[in-house]
Amino acid sequence: MDVQERKLLRLVRTLSAQDRATLVAFAEFLAGRVPRPSVPEAPLAIPRPAEEKVVHAIRRLRETYPMLDHGKMLNQVSQLMTQHVMQGRPAHEVIDELELLFRAHYEKRLKAGEEDA
């Protein structure tokens, strides 16, 4: 948390519940003024190179699936990377599994979207 965020948090804690609600409404208004880059709903068609390092595959998959919350996959991705680096698991096997992992998260997101509709 940077200095401004800490200062804002200290100030928020001094406000009444009604003033906090007003502040949140104003913050939402301000945030809405900033144009958000559009995030594609479908995976991008970024081809897998014949020879690819695991780190580059992770970067490619993050770009292929920009709509996903990559933080939710951090543990699983880290485990696969560790298997490659520390245990010597072949890169192509790890990348195959990374492909499946990203695809599964994407399909889970699609399914969740259908349930919300």
Describe, in plain words, how this protein is organized in 3D.
The chain has 117 residues and is mainly α. It folds into 2 domains: 3-33, no CATH class; 54-116, no CATH class. The protein has helices at 3-14, 17-33, 54-64, 74-85, 91-116. Helix 4 (74-85) packs antiparallel against helix 5. The longest helix is centred in the C-terminal third of the chain and has 26 residues, at 91-116. It starts with a helix and ends with a helix. The mean pLDDT is 89.
Properties at a glance:
0% strand; 2 domains; single chain; mainly alpha; 117 residues
Looking at how many chains there are and whether they match, the oligomeric state comes to single chain
By secondary-structure content and strand pairing, the structural class works out as mainly alpha
Share in β-strands = under 5%
List unreliable stretches of 5+ residues. Answer: none
Number of domains: 2
Number of helices: 5
Residue share in helix: 55-70%
- Rounded to the nearest angstrom, the distance between the terminal CA atoms is 36 Å
Shape summary: elongated
Q: What's the total count of β strands?
A: 0
The rounded Rg comes to 20 Å
* Main sheet summary: none
